[in-house]
TrEMBL record, chain A:
The keyword Transcription regulation is assigned to this record: no
Catalytic activity: 4 Fe(II)-[cytochrome c] + O2 + 8 H(+)(in) = 4 Fe(III)-[cytochrome c] + 2 H2O + 4 H(+)(out)
First-listed, main subcellular location of the protein, grouped into a coarse class: membrane
PROSITE patterns linked to this entry: COX1, COX1_CUB
Similarity field: Belongs to the heme-copper respiratory oxidase family.
Biological processes annotated in GO: electron transport coupled proton transport; oxidative phosphorylation; respiratory electron transport chain
Compositional bias segments (type: Basic and acidic residues): 1-20
Name of the protein in question: cytochrome-c oxidase
PANTHER family noted in UniProt: CYTOCHROME BO(3) UBIQUINOL OXIDASE SUBUNIT 1, CYTOCHROME C OXIDASE SUBUNIT 1
Transmembrane segment boundaries: 68-90, 117-139, 151-170, 195-219, 231-253, 293-312, 319-339, 351-376, 388-410, 430-449, 461-483, 503-524, 637-656, 689-715, 727-746, 758-784, 796-819, 840-863
Topology of the protein relative to the lipid bilayer: Multi-pass membrane protein
Region (Disordered): 1-32
Automatic annotation (TrEMBL), chain B:
Region entry Disordered, spans: 1-22
Record keywords, A-Z: Membrane, Transmembrane, Transmembrane helix
Regions that span the bilayer: 64-86, 113-139
Biased composition (Basic and acidic residues): 13-22
The protein, known as: Uncharacterized protein
């Protein structure tokens, strides 16, 4: 966070010229002044033109959140249906003892894909999808700050998802369980495990892109006046979940990185015969895997936090308590991962810590449910269909939470571990905490998204079918599990008391499926003859219900000044004035797509952000990124490298042509007498924030690799092995010096450029890549004599080297990009966002390079 | 919202309001500050877990001095969280304003809201540290 946000003097010498000018906040008299009708019509016409959705086949080049969000949601929903069909096949096989409806191998593929797809292709992406779709409207923003990043994320998700899901049709799907434990998964023949690893890594990167977008969106794109204490609770949850993604996904990416190096090149990270340790994978997986559960749960419960006040027709009770609940859960959820590993033989006292934290997380989780109950108790409740789904969800979730409290107690978990009891527990939490609230959200937000309504009658049918079917399927599984039925077996003998329970579960699974079929019919049936809906059909109080009916692509006709938590209830004439274009940015005189950037805490207007429009460049970038991930699955490397290079080319083209270009005028009148800059660099710009957040995730992944090194040291008595070769110390020292020099030159280039000393800045930017490459080269040669397949010690040294060298390549491209920008006049002393972002990347990269050099150069001396 | 919430009362004290206004402006970092208590919890948790894991892996036992040191760290963490919580409680300032929920779009309400959120997070972090300390007292050895 920056104090700079609030004091213009601190942000560079030109800050005063680029500081906001004019009155703020607006007075009532200013807001009461009418806008002439002819002007309103002309403004609306210009806005409509700027935000026009492309027609015909060009429709697919759209990047606006309302299009990408819908595609994203529908794709995730399709994957959910496919994963649901897989579950039905699993249930058919388990319906009767000694069944042979499908083969054991297909069964393994089905349960692996069911879990993986539900988690990676449905639960996480649907959060991103729904947030991209509704968050800008809740914040009165025109769009997210980086629409093309969302589009790139979506196309990556689609390609990766089809690739992973499609594998089952060719009988090569992953089959080692959704958590891919080595050695089963590392030893497995065929490309199954590689498909899982590479396909999902690709999707994880899309998730991180979405997290960056959503965090920056929440922090910087709120409407003027919407301070942190009055922003919608949904935005709080999104911010917390975005932060969790940044710390939870990178350990898995690091794990995937090590895992794939083992699969492809036989580097023995998880092979105990050569010093590796399968437990490292379990740690990295579950450091991701447990927060993941909350990453899925919190945004869904956030939907409940929007629906409950509408139903109770009063503000939420305990707003601060819900914020506590979200933030507290976000933190505590990182202290739970070992409760998935209670039976791996860790010391009891360690289990105690994780058991304690697992019990502690129940407190914030419970608090929000009590806040909802309290709101309903003191409100004037008018039950509607979304509330029915929320109520059903909370009931189921509470049951799942209670079995969670049981399982968090280690001795109980020893008994129930790997049995159907766990299956019952996790489905209760995920259905109650995620599926039901998300469906409630679909019913609730459908009028906002599609400007139509879903049927109340079909919705009730779907609810009761799924609710009853769910309980009949999963309640018996508690008992099946306690009677000893293990998970993931494809057949079982008769006479163990499991028969009728399994038959009941299998039959009821089809009742759930029937419920989803009804929901699907309701969702997809043509609604063109339906009369126009009311603008605010639920009479809600939050800003998204100021949407235009019939639809307009501009998001908000003008960006309002907000002073209340429920502006539609408590700010009279708000919608009327928004519609008249009375507020900010009610016009698009230059024909650009624009949205407002405000300060983090108090949402004071800072800047007008020009956002990018329809393009095909993101498709090219996504397709070739896909190639770079998909070819290695089949151990084909040259085309993969070529694809990677082309993808980088597309991304550079996209950045070069449309981002951070000098604007045609520096200040712009945004209405109500306020003038805002059209360009920002450094901590004032959204791009800098995005870089900061991305690098935080990247640093977490790097820290996970370094954690691996120290993990081997603690877990094994002979690490480093006594006879092992060490990295060449002087080369490691040279690498550290060269990286430090490259960093210093980049940092100096930023100041020199700002000071107008262009020749010196360009000189620094020309020398810096050479220093970078020298450092990377030295690092490569420092480990070249060590054989990474021989033992895990050289292997982890190589892995750290590879990590740093790849980042150095990115860093060198960035330095050259700035040099080219300076030469081409894209980057000037006044318009220098590029070099600020690159310098920020280099702060992180230099730090990780130095840590890497310390581990490579110093750790062998210290640890032996 | 709160029946005791009375905006009129604040307007009666213009001099104080100016001073407060300056204080509110100076807290741009406060969004990070609300995470102070849970961050202390995380640090304490990691310290306990890592120290015990290394001791068990390398020495096969948790020496008495380590348990003692970790208990001392628990006390320090609880004291630090207590201090954060007390400061946050003062920032919330509910005893003076009687305003529990701070729902208005004003600097003062935002300031007090962040105090309230930080205060609640301090409570939950305090409980978290107490929970995580219990195995140190109740579980012996590395088995």
């Amino acid at each position: 966070m920056s104090r700079r946000d609030d004091s213009p003097a601190a942000a560079g010498e030109h800050a005063d010229e680029r500081a906001p000018r004019g009155p703020y906040p607006p007075t009532e008299a200013m807001l009461a002044e009418p806008v002439p009708p002819e002007l309103q019509a002309a403004q609306a016409e210009r806005l409509r033109k700027a935000w026009e959705t492309p027609k015909g086949w060009r429709y697919w080049s759209a990047v606006n959140n309302s299009e990408v969000g819908v595609w994203y949601s529908l794709t995730a929903f399709c994957f959910m249906l496919l994963a649901g069909l897989m579950a039905l096949m699993i249930r058919v096989q388990l319906a009767v003892p000694e069944n042979d409806a499908i083969s054991a191998d297909l069964f393994n593929q089905l349960f692996t894909m069911h879990g993986s797809a539900m988690m990676f292709l449905f639960a996480v992406p649907i959060f991103e999808a729904i947030s991209i779709l509704i968050l800008p409207a809740m914040l009165g923003a025109r769009d997210m700050p980086f629409p093309r990043l969302s589009a790139y994320g979506y196309w990556s998700f689609l390609i990766g998802g089809i690739f992973v899901m499609g594998s089952i049709l060719f009988d090569v799907a992953p089959r080692a369980g959704w958590f891919m434990y080595p050695p089963l998964a590392t030893e497995e023949k065929g490309p199954g495990s590689d498909i899982w690893l590479l396909g999902l890594s690709f999707i994880e990167i899309a998730s991180i892109a979405a997290a960056v977008e959503l965090i920056v969106g929440t922090l910087k794109c709120r409407p003027p006046g919407m301070r942190v204490n009055i922003m919608p609770l949904y935005a709080w949850y999104v911010m917390v979940v975005g932060g969790m993604i940044l710390f939870a996904f990178p350990p898995l990416i690091a794990g995937d990185f090590l895992f794939e190096l083992e699969r492809s090149f036989d580097w023995p990270f998880f092979d105990p015969t050569r010093g590796g340790d399968p437990m490292l994978w379990q740690h990295l997986f579950w450091i991701f895997g447990h927060p993941e559960v909350y990453i899925v749960f919190l945004p869904s419960i956030a939907i409940a936090a929007m629906i409950v006040p509408t139903v109770a027709r009063r503000p939420i009770v305990g707003y601060s308590w819900i914020v506590l609940s979200a933030v507290g859960t976000g933190f505590l959820s990182f202290g739970l991962w070992v409760h998935h590993m209670f039976t791996t033989g860790l010391p009891n006292i360690s289990l105690g810590f994780f058991s304690a934290a697992s019990e502690a997380v129940v407190i914030p989780t419970g608090i929000q449910l009590f806040a909802f109950a309290a709101t309903l108790m003191v409100g004037r409740v008018r039950v509607n269909l979304p509330m029915l789904w929320i109520a059903g969800g909370l009931a189921i979730f509470t049951a799942g939470g209670l079995t969670g409290v049981m399982l968090a107690i280690a001795p109980f978990d020893f008994q129930a571990h790997d049995s159907y009891f766990v299956v019952a527990h996790l489905h209760y939490t995920l259905f109650g905490g995620m599926v039901f609230p998300v469906i409630a959200g679909v019913y609730y937000f459908y009028p906002f998204i599609a400007k139509k309504r879903l049927s109340d009658r079909l919705g009730k049918w779907a609810f009761w079918l799924i609710f009853v079917g769910f309980n009949l399927t999963f309640l018996p599984m508690h008992l099946t599990g306690l009677l000893g039925m293990p998970r993931r077996i494809y057949a079982y003998p008769a006479g163990l008391g499991w028969d009728w329970l399994n038959l009941l579960s299998s039959t009821a699974a089809f009742v759930i499926a029937a419920g989803f079929a009804v929901f699907l019919v309701d969702l997809l049936r043509p609604k063109s003859r339906q009369p126009q809906i009311a603008r605010n059909p639920w009479e809600a109080g939050t800003l998204e219900w100021s949407h235009d009916v019939p639809e307009e692509a501009w998001g908000a006709r003008s960006v309002p000044y907000i002073t209340k938590r429920y502006p539609l209830w408590d700010q009279p004439k708000l919608v009327e004035r928004m519609d008249a274009g009375r507020y900010y940015l009610g016009d698009a005189e230059e024909g650009f797509r624009e949205t407002m950037i405000t300060s983090v805490i108090d949402a004071r207007p800072l800047q007008v952000q020009r956002v990018t429009g329809p393009t095909w460049k993101t498709h090219g970038a996504a397709i070739f990124t896909g190639g770079a991930f998909i070819f290695p699955t089949f151990h084909i490397y040259w085309p993969a490298i070529l694809c990677g290079a082309i993808a980088v080319g597309f991304i550079i083209w996209w950045l070069w042509s449309d981002t951070a270009r000098p604007p045609e005028k520096e200040m712009k009148d945004v209405g109500l007498g306020l003038s805002l800059p059209t360009y920002a660099s450094g901590p004032k710009s959204v791009g800098w924030w995005a870089m900061w957040i991305t690098m935080l995730g990247d640093a977490t992944a790097f820290a996970s690799v370094i954690f691996g090194f120290f993990f081997y040291w603690t877990a094994s008595p002979d690490f480093p092995p006594p006879e092992a070769l060490d990295p060449v110390a002087w080369l490691v020292g040279l690498a550290a010096a060269a990286m430090a020099l490259a960093w210093a030159l980049t940092r100096a280039a930023r100041s020199l450029n700002r000071a107008g000393r262009l020749a010196a800045a360009r000189g620094a930017l020309a020398v810096a890549p050479a220093a970078t490459l020298l450092g990377a080269g030295a690092l490569i040669f420092s480990v070249l004599h060590m054989s990474p397949t021989a033992h895990v010690y050289p292997a982890i040294m190589w892995a750290i080297m590879v990590w740093v060298v790849v980042h150095s390549g990115v860093g060198a491209i960035m330095q050259l990009y700035c040099l080219a920008g300076s030469l081409a006049g894209k980057m000037t002393p006044r318009f220098d966002a590029d070099i600020w972002n690159v310098a920020l990347f280099w702060h992180f990269h230099a730090l990780s390079a130095l840590v890497a050099c310390a581990v490579l150069g110093l750790a062998p001396m210290v640890l032996t | 919202m709160s029946a005791r919430h009375d905006p009129q009362r604040r307007r009666d004290r213009p001099a104080e309001r100016d001073e407060e206004r300056r204080a509110f402006r100076e807290e741009a970092e406060s969004l990070v500050r609300i995470t102070a208590a849970p961050t202390i919890w995380s640090g304490h948790f990691l310290l306990c877990y890592c120290a015990v894991a290394i001791a068990c892996a390398k020495a096969g036992a948790v020496p008495g001095w380590l348990t003692g040191g970790l208990l001392a760290a628990s006390v320090a963490a609880l004291a630090a969280i207590g201090w954060v919580g007390w400061r946050a409680f003062r920032q919330w300032n509910v005893t003076d304003t009687g305003d529990f929920s701070n729902p208005e779009g004003e600097a003062e309400d935002r300031h007090e809201f962040l105090g309230h959120a930080a205060f609640l997070l301090a409570i939950i972090s305090f409980i978290g540290v107490v929970y995580v300390t219990m195995p140190l007292l109740l579980v012996e050895g590395c088995r």
